[in-house]
Structure formats: structure tokens, C-alpha cells
Specification:
Blueprint: H1 3-8, H2 11-16, E1 26-27, E2 34-35, E3 43-51, E4 58-64, E5 70-77, E6 82-89, E7 92-93, E8 97-99, E9 113-121, E10 125-130, E11 133-139, E12 147-154, E13 157-165, E14 182-183, E15 197-201, E16 209-217, E17 224-230, E18 239-247, E19 256-263, E20 266-267, E21 271-273, E22 284-291, E23 295-300, E24 303-309, E25 319-324, E26 326-335
Length: about 350
């Protein structure tokens, strides 16, 4: 949206364009703490508000019973184009997590627009959705039982709030994704690939299947992951036949890749593949996952960087999920021809 359009459009115009208004939400005040019902897994907090034309940043905080402790600080910095997540312990900020979110309409936190946020509680992390799309997760650093208040601060207006319980996340009744992507042999994907992303695999997943992921690492990558899974929910947790998780900024160690699967309600024994991997921040890459007889082989360019023996039947896989510090250019699938 151009600068001229931002200033010409009124707040009322922005509200007319807002398709996530929820009549069950109630008006709340900026800077004033709101007492929450006790949080538990399946608790969901809905926050909507208007980001004014001259907004610089705002924050959504889940504050604890003990003064000076904040379990979640969710802080879009509109002037910088990124989002900070953090906790505060005894008045001191801990290690922050950041990302630079870009959506189908460019940066998702835009001035002179209304925003819909959902914070959903699972057993181990907050799951955060923005305007109907899952945005990020933040692992608990405080138990949910310690959280007592919601407080919104900064440049956000017309705040509304609701607390409820959900049995699935993202809930299609509340989160209405703008994208519905299907990957087939005849239809590679090159558009609407903003991360995090769920892609339905629209063909049989079997031995000989190859997944091709062309993309670029962000400039300061922490990690990203690729899941071959059954179903597209985050909660309840999907069955994952392959969880592929390259990790980068862990002290002074070289990048390494963690592989695992999720079944019967938990992660199983992880496998770590180390060694010099040619991941370059800001550089393009081609990642290939090949479903072979014994297991999956993982290729970076023309070099095999790891393998993961089958623990689940490949035929259960119907969804490709990618999240983290990566920009996607192209997704494709094909089958290796039998000799």
C-alpha cells in the first residue's frame, strides 16, 4: 500500500476492510491490565485492534502474578519491520527471538489497518496466529499457572479482547487462511509461499517420491524446519514421518541438522547430522528429500547431508509444512523412474 493511500484511507475505511471482527470480543484499554481466567492447554486469547498511521511499535504482554515477570512479550516493531518475542524475569529481559514477517500483502503488521491476533496455549508453547494465518510459536519459559494479566501497550487503538477454549488450532471457524496450496507432479508452486506454510500433497506419497525445495536462508538464520506429516493442524499435534530441522546459531558450532518423528504423542529419539554444511545466510539453496526403500535421504545441492530410516509408512504423508528463517522460491514433487 502506497504512502498516499495510507493517509487518504480513514480509520473507518480500514474497519470496513477488516474481515476478522468478532462480536464476542469486549473493549479494553491500552496500558490497563486485564485479569485472565486461569490458562491451560486449549486456552485461546483473541486480541483485535487498529494500528494507527504513525505507529512505530506496540506489544501484547502476558504478565505473571509476580511483579516484574512477563511470560510472553510479543512486540511488532513496525518502524523496523520485524517482531520480537521475549520474557522478562525479575525486571530483566531474557534472550529475545526475532523474525521479519512478510505476508501475501507484504509486511503483515501495516499502519492504518486492523489486526487480529490469536494466542493459543498448547502443552509446551504459545502458538500465535495473525489475521487467520499461523505466524510463530514461543516455547514456555514460565508455567501457564503463573500468568495472570494481559496488557497491551504502545501504538494500537480500538482494542478488543476475548478468552475462550479451542480443541483444534488453527481453528477453521476463527482462522480463515488466505491460501490453500496443493502440490502435484504437474503443478509446482512458485507463488504465495510465505513461511510458515502448509501445503497439501495432492498425489500419492510413496517410495521414489522426491520433494524439491528451492529457497534462501535469511541473513541471520536461527533455524528452520521441514515436516512430512499427516494433517495440517498444529494442535492436536500431527503425526510426523520426518522432521528435518537445520540449526545455525548455536554458539560457535558449525550448522547441523536434527531429524526426528512424532508418533504416539511424543518425539522419538532424534538423530543429529553434523559436519561442514554449505548453508550460507542470504544465499539460495536447493534442498531435496528423497523417499527411498530404507528411508529418506537429504540432499543440499548435489551433496547428501543426511539420511533418516523409515519409522512410519511414507504413505501416511499428506502435508508438507515449512517454518522458520527461510524464504521459499519454488516447491516441486516428482517420482524417480524405476529402472
Amino acid at each position: 500500500m502506497s504512502v498516499d493511500c495510507i493517509f487518504k484511507r480513514t480509520k473507518e475505511d480500514a474497519f470496513k476492510d477488516f474481515c476478522f471482527f468478532d462480536e464476542k470480543t469486549i473493549q479494553i484499554e491500552v496500558d490497563k491490565p486485564v485479569i485472565l481466567q486461569p490458562l491451560k492447554p486449549t486456552s485461546a486469547l483473541i486480541i483485535t485492534g487498529y494500528i494507527p498511521v504513525h505507529a512505530i511499535r506496540f506489544s501484547i504482554n502476558l504478565n505473571c502474578k509476580t511483579s516484574g515477570n512477563t511470560a510472553l512479550h510479543f512486540n511488532p516493531r513496525i518502524d523496523r519491520g520485524y517482531v520480537v518475542r521475549n520474557t522478562k524475569i525479575k525486571g530483566t529481559w531474557e534472550l529475545e527471538e526475532t523474525c521479519s514477517p512478510v505476508g501475501p500483502c507484504n509486511y503483515i503488521f501495516r499502519r492504518n489497518c486492523y489486526i487480529h491476533l490469536m494466542i493459543f496455549c498448547t502443552e509446551d508453547a504459545f502458538q500465535i496466529a495473525v489475521n487467520g494465518e499461523h505466524f510463530c510459536a514461543f516455547t514456555y519459559r514460565f508455567p501457564l499457572s503463573e500468568i495472570k494479566y494481559l496488557q497491551c501497550e504502545g501504538h494500537i487503538e480500538d482494542l478488543r479482547f476475548n478468552q475462550l477454549n479451542l480443541h483444534v488450532y488453527p481453528d477453521p471457524k476463527i482462522c480463515k487462511p488466505s491460501r490453500s496450496l496443493v502440490l502435484t507432479v504437474d503443478s509446482p508452486l512458485v507463488e504465495f509461499l510465505e513461511v510458515p506454510i502448509n501445503v497439501r500433497i495432492g498425489c500419492e506419497f510413496k517410495l521414489g517420491t522426491n520433494i524439491f525445495i528451492r529457497g534462501r536462508l535469511k541473513l541471520l538464520p536461527h533455524s528452520f524446519y521441514v515436516n512430512l506429516q499427516k494433517g495440517d493442524t498444529i494442535y492436536p499435534h500431527p503425526i510426523i514421518a520426518l522432521h528435518l530441522n537445520p540449526r545455525f546459531l548455536y554458539g560457535c558450532s558449525e550448522p547441523y541438522v536434527v531429524m526426528n518423528c512424532w508418533v504416539d504423542g511424543s518425539w522419538k529419539n532424534e538423530e543429529r547430522h553434523e559436519g561442514q554444511l554449505s548453508w550460507m545466510p542470504g544465499r539460495d539453496f536447493l534442498l531435496t528429500i528423497r523417499c527411498e526403500h530404507e528411508g529418506y535421504t537429504i540432499w543440499l545441492g548435489n551433496k547428501m547431508i543426511g539420511e533418516f530410516k523409515h519409522r512410519l509408512k511414507p504413505s501416511i504423508v499428506d502435508t508438507l509444512r515449512i517454518s522458520g528463517d527461510v524464504v521459499l522460491h519454488h516447491l516441486a514433487i516428482d517420482y524417480t523412474k524405476k529402472k
